Amino acid sequence: MTFALFLAACGSNNSAGGGQDNPAETAGSANTSSSGGDSAAGDKLTIAVVPKLVGIPYFNASEAGAVKAGEELGVNVIYTGPTQADAAQQVKVIEDLISKQVDAIAVAPNDAAALTPVLKKAKDAGILVMDWDTHADRSVVELSVNQIDNQMFGEHIIDRLVEHMGDSGEYAIVTGGLSASNLNTWIDFGQSYAKEKYPNLKLVTERIPSDEKQQVAYQKTLEILKAYPDLKGIAAYSTVAPLGAAQAVQEKGLQNTVAVVGTALPTDSGPFLEDGSLDVAVLWDPAKLGYLTVYLAKELLEGRAVTDGMDVPNVGKITVASDGITVVMGPPSDFTKDNYKDFDF
Amino acid sequence: MRFSLYEKVLLAVFLGLFGLFALTAPNFLSETNLKSMMVQMPELGLISLGMMVVILTSGIDLSITYISSLSGIAVAWGLVQGWPVPLAIAAGACTALLCGLFNGFFIARIGVSPIVLTLGSMLLFEGLALRVTKGGSISGFPESYYVIGGSSVGPIPLPMLFFIAAAIVTSVLLNRTVWGRSAYMLGSNPTAALYSGIPVRRVLIYVYLFSALMALIAAVIMTSRYNSGKVDYGSSYLLLSVAAVVLGGTSVRGGSGTVKGTVIGVCIFQILSSALNLYGLSPHIVNVMMGGILIVVLVANYLSEHIKHALHDIGRVLTGKASASS
């Protein structure tokens, strides 16, 4: 089965690839394309998936999904990104991918505006440009792969928070970084929803940044707990902020008085879910997101359309918005004490 | 141009790596890659030049990348208000020079240690930048501004020309002016510098102003290239610039170091990062390689100096003379 897919991928790419190459490069690569096994590997589609940064659990999980898709679908997957969440570094990575002449680049931008020029350059070089996880500039992407609907997700987190702290009282928000646009979007949707639906909730202070670091989130939470002794809940955004917040609550023994709800990975959350210092983690499966990104890139490269309600193997049915480029993977998943062991990311 | 022994070794390392990558890294010599390397290098290069001049005086400027982002934000803010490009850049220049003056004043006049003061000003500038932008980016520039980061003169990208010009100017300032020579002297022996009548405070203030100026030029290139101004642009260059300067042969104790060395150091980091990306290696490996090369070159340099001294001492003992002709 995999072998058949592999052959199909090679076959369709032979013609597409030949058309894109400029004459000089085709002449240059002609030497190698005559030998058997090598040329087959060389003719496979190459799809580059660029995360915001490499080496954190969330993006490691999506890497696993992207790589799995590469193996199953018979395409080369390059998963590479900056080692710090710096847009300048991310631009460099993309420039190098353009030099490498990949077929598609799917990027999770650290900063959408910063990537627009380099993504235009990629597009001009004949590369398929997509975004995943976080939006890039709409005018430069052919497809935008979203894990969830942002509004639904922002409201869902507030609902879960209320479920654990009650619909009145003081709460605080700890976020990964003040400049992360997806985190800000969820918080904003959540805030306007909370104001309307739960008027007795009181946000004690502005959202508190934690530099995408567990240690920082932990320290800031200790400070909040000290400054606001009546605090009843904390909503933490970014995959490490909830862990830091829960760690602080755990250390102070406040599991039963302060509810913590956040966007964390189930395996990392395990120890905190066990004793109730983290009440619920809300997220999606990043491995599926990585898989879906590679799958859809391959569909587009091979000239097939991405349609609403399409059934993607290993992922399920996806929705495509009326603009034709916004894809949503599905509803968010809740990870609790009872189910976190069922997930391996 | 004359090269010291260390610089010759460094140049050989650069040429060796370049040859190796040209032969083995796919598309390394392609026009796209050569161009993108020349576009990428100037940002780190300019910040490294600013950092080098500070390190020469046995200081360090930990706030340099945030001076860069704060002045970039000032430029971006000006542009979004509809100011003409030169005026917006002037606003950025004022911001950068104020930051440099702030550092220089406290270090030179009050005598706060550079590492502590610039650590403080780093947080201060970052905080200001966050306050102004609320963490988001400022974008929506006129088309004419993209010319700075996006155009080329012949085959050479404009940012690269800025970098070359800045390197030449820095070299001339350091070697041919009283200020430059004083900076070296200040780094090798501050007490002697003071007693020989060098206006130590003024020299130091100009050193921090100079590093802020380099940060500004880097900021102009970055805002143009990234189409926006934001707090964390270039933040990854901070420690990388210290590493490039040290790899370039500048002594962290101050007093010695050259622009040539720093430029070669920056070039080595650039071809390493591009080539390793072309190989498709994990970005963590890129950091490991950069760290590894830095340590190997520095240890080799340290050992070779010690062996030279040891041989010299043995020679003196054998000939039984106090000061052999060396």
UniProtKB/TrEMBL annotation, chain B:
Keyword Transmembrane helix: yes
InterPro entries referenced in this protein's UniProt entry, alphabetically: ABC_transp_permease (IPR001851)
Location of this chain's protein in the cell: Cell membrane
Membrane topology of the entry: Multi-pass membrane protein
Alphabetized UniProt keyword annotations: Cell inner membrane, Cell membrane, Membrane, Transmembrane, Transmembrane helix, Transport
Residue spans crossing the bilayer: 40-57, 89-108, 115-133, 153-174, 203-222, 234-252, 259-279, 285-303
Protein name from the UniProt record: ABC transporter permease
Organism: Paenibacillus cisolokensis
